[in-house]
Amino acid sequence: MLVRPVEPGVDDLYGAFERVAQAVPDKTALIYLGEKFTFAELRAMALSLAASLKDMGVEADQRVILYLYNVPQNIIAWLAIQRLKATAVPVAPVYSAYDLEYLANDSGAETIFCMDSNFNYVAEVLPNSPLKRVVHTSMLDFVPWWKRAIARGLERVPVGRFPKGEAVYAFKELVRKGNPRALAPHEPRGPEATAILLYTGGTTGFPKGVPLSNGLYLNNVVQWREASAAVVPAGEGVSALAAPLYHVIGQMDATAPLLIGGETLILLPRVVLDGLMHEIQRHRATNIFAVPALYRMMLEHDRLGLYDLSSLRYCGVGGDVLPADVANRWLKKFGIPLYQGYGTTEFCGAVTLSYSEYGVPPEGSIGRLTRGSKVKLVQPGTLEPVSPGEPGELLGAMPWGVKGYWNKPEETAEAFIELEGEVWYNTKDMVRESEEGWYFFMDRSADMIKHKGYRVAAAEVERVLQEHHAVLSACVVGVPDEKVGERIKAFVVTKQDVRGVSSYELMGWCRQRLAPYKVPHYIEFRDMLPKSKVGKMLRREMRAEEQRKLSG
User: Fold this and answer.
1) Does the residue 235 lie in any domain?
2) Is 552 exposed, middle or buried (0-12, 13-18, 19+ CB in 10 A)?
3) CA 414 to CA 457: how far, in whole Å?
4) Which residue range is the domain that position 162 belongs to?
5) pTM of the model
6) Is residue 313 part of a domain?
7) DSSP 239
8) Which of 148, 188, 415, 433 could staple 140 via S-S, CB 3.0–4.6 A?
9) Averaged pLDDT for residues 537-549
10) Domain-embedded: residue 348
């Protein structure tokens, strides 16, 4: 059962966890590579780490980068940061130094947590960023010595090197040395205080930070857990995390069990199908939330029949449009539906969810409006309301909602609108509402590419390509693909005096500067690209051309 209903305007993120930890101290909070951590153990480690960070100079409202995989240290650090009233900045551990330098400078973070395997990128950006302190860890820091020996003997875990120095700290050492008694008594933060700074694709080509307030995060994490309450009663959930912690789905899905119901979270450093299904079977997981591509891969996996997944009761899906055939095959195979939701980082997860209390959602539905949220469906451009049942651009507002991007006034002005005394986020996605209150996704904002549930900004990929000495201009679009949503295709015009540049070379250039999921899958060379009268790239013409090819 719930320890006590969370009050987003009164509680804060650490306070919610503290209450759960004190109510169910001996219950398993985390399972990682077969190791179990109780709520009491998780609390003790978070407080010890918080004390050490305080001694190092981490203070309230400072930003702290979490450049980590889905390991217990990520959760422990997240809680410690909240305890100090600082702001967590989760970023993809696969980012190169190129991305990391931008994020460190944009966020102004002075402290970073990293894996030993990506420390070399941190070392590369230290001289050109505000970073002052580095805390390193490994995938095996919190497993017994014999498991570490086996993993390293079989070379199953990446291992990195890191120098020693006064500004470089070992995670385990900070947890061991920290004195929680040195911390002042916890006082809840106000609901408007920024708890998380989560980055998403930027229309100008640079990622933009989304400040998620304490009140907004708590309000939405409560709804995230309530969505499954009819089939998984509070306190009985076991969630297998199938999304990365630097993604808003991963944030919601990881923290809902820990902050709301005193439930168990299963962590895997990286999602591997056999590993995920093994953990679901072994620990009788009840909940999972993933992108459509993962469910398709599970259904098509040749060893699916070797695993017992019958414990699953709520399978949420988001991040991309759910194909009807995947939904129907899953329902037929397992006898439970895929519950689709819709949201963005700016909404701190979901603005619509398929609550299990309503039974099997209508085909193609993205759920019902989350409690406490507001939406308007309007005509693009005019913002005039559409007629009932007609599709319109979705504007959304939430309690303690995001009012703008971090240090991005121009992009804020493009995406956020003040109406009726409230700030609304304009998704530019076309959605319709049925008479029964179900929402249906119709079309997306065209310049955001959805690949395996990730939002990839076309402008960001174009910017990186155009930084290559041989490239005159580039246009990037999404090409529909039933398995991964969309694949990334780039059209490139090279400079007249340059010869011999290959798509292989340009892809290598992108791999050095972009996260792997942002690298183009195809590069096609052109003599020219379509532009408007004012010189703006006409991506819509390139998308239309690709659609014509697909339709034959």
Assistant:
1) yes
2) exposed
3) 15
4) 13-271
5) 0.85
6) no
7) E
8) 148
9) 82
10) no
